Automatic annotation (TrEMBL):
GO biological process: amino acid transport
CDD domains for this protein: PBP1_ABC_LIVBP-like
Family annotation (InterPro entries): Leu-bd (IPR028081), Leu_Ile_Val-bd (IPR000709), Peripla_BP_I (IPR028082)
Domain Leucine-binding protein: 28-371
Organism: Leptothrix cholodnii (strain ATCC 51168 / LMG 8142 / SP-6) (Leptothrix discophora (strain SP-6))
Cleaved signal peptide residues: 1-22
Keywords, in A-Z order: Amino-acid transport, Receptor, Signal, Transport
PANTHER family cross-referenced by the UniProt entry: AMINO ACID BINDING PROTEIN, LEU/ILE/VAL-BINDING ABC TRANSPORTER SUBUNIT
Domain of life: Bacteria
Gene3D superfamilies: 3.40.50.2300
Lineage of the species this protein comes from: Bacteria, Pseudomonadati, Pseudomonadota, Betaproteobacteria, Burkholderiales
Name of the protein this chain belongs to: Extracellular ligand-binding receptor
Amino acid sequence: MTTTSLRLGCIAAACFALSAHAAQPLVVKIGHVAALSGPAAHLGHDNENGVRMAIEELNAKGVQIGGRPARFELLAEDDAGDPKQGTAAAQKLVDNKVNGVVGHLNSGTAIPAARIYADAGIAQIAPSVTNPQYTRQGFKTTFRMVADDAQLGGALGRYAVQTLKAKTIAVIDDRTAYGQGVASEFEKAAKAAGATIAKREFTSDKSTDFTSILTGIKAAKPDVIFYGGMDGVAGPMLRQMKQLGIRAKFVGGDGVCTGELPKLASGQMTDGQVVCAIAGGVDAAQRPAFDKFKADFKKKFGAEVQIYSPYTYDATKVMVEAMVKAKSADPAKYLPELQKISYPGVTGTIAFDEKGDIRNGALTLYTFKGGQREELGIVR
């Protein structure tokens, strides 16, 4: 073989190798963490299904990243809503070399986990975390899909005084990062609006008996009882309020504001008694896309959307969009694209500020009538 033909043969072999490499699927691992066990498990599974739906659609679409066909894999972990289990789950995903993480469900697990992802340089998009501290730790890897507690608790505090005309209020929280955070912001806003906080009590996120707390609150005759925590505790609390003859309005944040609440309260809540807010919501122009997502979700999983599966769905899609723009699934390369992205999701246009917070985040106010959640309106 001549030198020229040898050289041409080598070039052909190199081209073939490059072509074969380009044809090889790029495996992209998307981590998801939520409480898949414990009292918030129904919310955790809802969140996970949103990610699962997005990944299946992306695989069916045949997304390419940097000229290579991408195959997306879901690595799901259960943190049970426990901070220690949350950091263990985060470390496990880091060790498995995930390309990005959607999660966690709770503020109490997402905040300590954020440092682990930041140290590894892995992007974390939280779909339902509302404690302001989450994006105030100085990490360039943390992003939030919804408005925070300062907005949510503040809006509910003003609503309780200005619309519900509450003069005397009792506040209870479950001592989690989420529960304490939203309760404190509510209390601050309600005081500023002119209400008196007659009682500030606390319980735990696993309690089932609130007789002692509620008996003390009953004596204060509040117009409104605010609870910072999740629906698994709020339901039994509402039931015991009814048993004790407490007729106060019951106000809560997004953890309370689920379709499961009437069932968890065993039907022991009167129409209009509960007012709650969800960090998120869509305007009229976005409603058709949002409603289509809900219909597709129900068809696929045989269940209604709880709260945040549309946000985990959008979080997954926006993360992948950043990878496509960067032509790489390496977080170091796609993070700059994520920081400046503007993406039309089913929940609205997704763009982040310099801290990683969602820009112009919406809040949706709800009540319950006939055992069904009913929207009151959207505020920003």
